[in-house]
Amino acid sequence: MGTWVISLIFLLVASLFPATAQAYTAEEAHQIYLEAVSLSDAGKHGQAYSLIKPVAEAGFAEAQHLMGYMHGQGEGVAENPAKAVEWLEAG
Question: Which of 6, 53, 62, 71 has the highest local Cβ count within 10 Å?
């Protein structure tokens, strides 16, 4: 069996499983960031955290900085200085 056939089989099998990471455009990520900041400013820290977390996990620096701040201040999540540093360094 040729390597191209093995590659084709791999791609077909891989396509059966959805990607777990959400893809965002830079504009979408920025809009979600702004909405999360607005929620946080309104005292809705839990909602802000839930909204921004997937964007931060997708690698957007603004979102990662906000996650670091939230972990550092204990807003929407238990205060965790080590996690705060991780997120801030990631961003």
Answer: 71
